[in-house]
Every structure is written in C-alpha cells, then in structure tokens.
C-alpha cells in the first residue's frame, strides 16, 4: 500500500482466528469478538489490534495466526494452537533507502508460557521454558514447532539449530519438515531426549494440523458472506460512488465562474480542473480499471493545494511527489497500464462469476463446513514418558 511520503510495509496483526481468544493487557483483558462479515472484521481490527506487551491466550477449541513485518523483509509468523498462552513484544521501525522511506512493525520478542506453537521468528527474541534455541542454519530462515506442557518442552525443528537445556551442552537438531531425519527433541528438568517424530502420535498431529489450521484457515470461515461475495458487493458500491461523484463534477465553465466570483482560489481552481481532466481521461467510471487510470492521469503536484491541509500534510504530499511521479512513469512504460487494465477487467469478471455461481458457492460452503468440523474436533493425545534409551548424552 502506498502512503503519502512513505511505503507502509504493514504491522503486527492477526491474519485469522477461530474460537475464544483473549488478550490480557495492562491489568485488563479483551475477548476477541466474532465478526459476521468483512465490514465488521475490518472495524474490529482497529479496536482489537495487538500491542507491545500483550499476553494472548486461546481457548480449548481456538486457533489464531499472527504475522509481523520485519525491516529486512523476512517472514515472521506465529500459529497458535488451542489452550496456549504467550506474550508478544512489538517494535515499530522506519528506514530509508534510495530516496524511499519505509515503515512497519515487527515482532521483537516471543515469550511462550504453555501450549503449542508453530513459529518463524526472524529477528524476534525467543523465550521458552526449559530450553534455549540458537539458530545455526544461515541458508534458511529459522522455523520450529514447540509444544510446552507441564514439566516438558518438545521442539520439532524445521531448520538446523542448537538446543540447550538446564545449562547443559548444546545439542544440534535436524529439520523435521522436508528431510529424512524427522526428529523431535524433548527437554525436561532432568535432561534431553531425542527420537523420531514418526513414532509419536501427538507430534505427528501437530505437524499436520499446523499446515491446515495455521496456513490454510479461510479468513471468512465464520461469515455468512464469503470473500468473493464481499468483493463483488464492494466493487458495485465503489462504482456507484464513483458514478455519483462524476455526475457532481463541475464543468470547467462553472469553475471559471466560481473563480471569478472569488468562491474558489486560483490554486483550488487548478486542483479541481486537474481532477476533472484526470476523471475524463480515465474512461468509464464503472470500469474496474477506473481507479488505476485515475492514478495514471492525476497531476499530484496540485494535491498540496487542497483546502484544509495542515503544514505537516502539505510537507508529506511534497515529499511523496517523487514516488507518485515514479509510479506514473512505470504505468506509462512498456504497456504497463494496458496490462494492469486488462488484469483488473479479468479479475472483476472472475469475482462476479465466483460470487454468483451456485456450484462454486455450494462447494465453498461444504469446504467451510468440513473445516469447522476439523477445528471443533481437534484434540491431542498426551506424550509418552521419555524413554531413557533416547537420552541425549
């Protein structure tokens, strides 16, 4: 997303959740609400967004997936299983390179208390009961699944790392996903044990469920209106608003009269005329590519003359002008604008078809029903007691 004067790289936020999720914050607590549709969800995200120091707990049949946006562009993700609790640290960042300002927020710290989690921490500091992890694989990002129960921490490594327990010697692990050495490491107060994940039912269920519930959970699982229906509705609403705005646009002759009467300043007249020209050059207001063409035709240098702007807002507009100009140059080169217009037209046709096709809607309804059933029936058997023959020396 482009903001005036900066590129917003995103914040630390949840991508999806299911069931009871509670956030403990500054002596109080927030129960995540269950939205009925995307409009409610976007409003809720502003109210129940995550903050630095939050302690997050999931209920008996609850899942949540959280992502951060590190400055170096690496992946940060935490998939949280039922009956789990952890604390999260969040750091906002700003950077500038090649004349472009960027900003975002990353997960700076993860303190796991109990439960099961799949983690790709990137630059975050990790705190886990009974164990310390040190990433040693420079070619791959760190990733692991950790399961914390009373008196035991189980690590399923997805990258090479050293695990240390109770100040003992570090033990190197081998990746469990996509490798032949599918091992798990069990850390207790008395020592560490290593064995094959394949003979552990609980570990196998966690590894399989992580792929389903952590990455594949539909965001609109709880909504009566699905993503395609929502997209089609918002597109129709946007078209209507644009068409209404086009009808209310003053002609250049009307603007000239207002300028002469003193009702608008010279700068406001130039801005209004610039917007009118951009709208006219952008074609049919009902076209799905109308917005893209408006961006391509707007004279952004006039935007600083909008009435009601503060000095800071004017400064941001002026600082963002080179970025806007660069974007327009990219649109104008190599048929880029024509390509984006064709893509927008095709995308709208696809969304409209998917939103109205009864076969597709029936298939999606069944998929959601099956997915809910899997979530509601999720359970984990206990770990067997560590066997001494697997003790790490």
Topology record:
Elements: E1 2-3, E2 6-8, E3 13-18, E4 21-25, E5 28-31, H1 38-47, E6 55-58, E7 63-68, E8 76-80, E9 85-97, E10 100-120, E11 125-127, E12 131-135, E13 144-149, E14 152-157, E15 161-165, E16 171-173, E17 183-188, E18 191-196, H2 201-214, H3 227-248, H4 252-261, H5 266-281, H6 290-297, H7 311-332, H8 336-356, H9 358-376
Parallel strand pairs: 2-10, 10-11
Antiparallel strand pairs: 1-2, 3-7, 4-5, 4-6, 6-9, 7-8, 8-10, 9-10, 10-13, 12-15, 13-14, 14-17, 15-16, 17-18
Helix pairs in contact: 3-8, 4-5, 5-6
Give a structural overview.
The chain is α+β, with helices and mostly antiparallel strands. The chain folds into 2 domains: 2-222 and 379-390, Sandwich (Jelly Rolls); 227-356, no CATH class. The protein has 9 helices and 18 strands. It has helices at residues 38-47, 201-214, 227-248, 252-261, 266-281, 290-297, 311-332, 336-356, 358-376; strands at residues 2-3, 6-8, 13-18, 21-25, 28-31, 55-58, 63-68, 76-80, 85-97, 100-120, 125-127, 131-135, 144-149, 152-157, 161-165, 171-173, 183-188, 191-196. The strands form 2 sheets. The protein has a 15-stranded mixed sheet that branches. β13 (144-149) and β14 form a beta hairpin. The longest helix is centred in the middle third of the chain and has 22 residues, at 227-248. The model has no long low-confidence stretch (mean pLDDT 83).
């Amino acid at each position: 997303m482009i903001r005036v004067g900066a590129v917003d790289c995103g914040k630390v936020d949840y991508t999806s959740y299911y069931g009871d999720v509670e956030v403990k914050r500054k002596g109080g607590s927030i129960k995540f609400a269950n939205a009925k549709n995307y409009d409610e969800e976007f409003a809720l995200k502003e109210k129940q967004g995550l903050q630095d120091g939050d302690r997050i707990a999931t209920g008996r049949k609850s899942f949540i997936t959280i992502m951060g946006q590190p400055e170096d562009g690496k992946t940060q993700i935490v998939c949280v299983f039922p009956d789990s609790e952890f604390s999260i640290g969040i750091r906002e960042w700003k950077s500038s390179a090649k004349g472009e300002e960027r900003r975002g927020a990353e997960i700076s710290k993860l303190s796991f208390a109990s439960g099961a989690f799949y983690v790709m921490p990137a630059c975050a500091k990790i705190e886990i009961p009974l164990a310390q992890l040190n990433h040693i694989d420079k070619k791959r990002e760190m990733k692991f699944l950790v399961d914390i129960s009373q008196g035991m921490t189980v690590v399923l490594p997805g990258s090479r790392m050293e695990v240390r327990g109770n100040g003992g010697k570090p033990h190197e692990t081998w990746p469990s996903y996509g490798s032949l050495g599918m091992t798990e490491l069990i850390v207790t107060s008395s020592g560490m044990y290593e064995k094959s994940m394949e003979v552990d039912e609980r570990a196998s269920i966690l590894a399989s469920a992580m792929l389903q519930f952590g990455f594949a959970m539909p965001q609109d699982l709880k909504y009566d209106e699905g993503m395609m229906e929502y997209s089609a509705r918002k597109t129709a609403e946007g078209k209507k608003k644009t068409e209404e705005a086009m009808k209310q646009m003053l002609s250049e002759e009307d603007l000239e009269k207002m300028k002469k009467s003193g009702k608008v300043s010279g700068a406001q007249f130039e801005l209004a005329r610039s917007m009118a020209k951009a709208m006219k050059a952008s074609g049919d207001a009902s076209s799905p590519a109308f917005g893209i063409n408006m961006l391509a035709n707007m004279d952004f240098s006039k935007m600083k003359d909008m009435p009601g702007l503060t000095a800071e807002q004017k400064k941001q507009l002026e600082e963002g002008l080179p970025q806007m100009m660069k974007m327009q140059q990219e649109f104008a080169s190599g048929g880029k604008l024509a390509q984006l217009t064709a893509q927008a037209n095709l995308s709208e046709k696809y969304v409209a078809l998917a939103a109205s096709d009864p076969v597709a809607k029936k298939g999606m309804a069944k998929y959601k029903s099956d997915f809910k059933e899997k979530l509601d029936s999720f359970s984990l058997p206990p770990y067997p007691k560590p066997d001494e023959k697997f003790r790490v020396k």
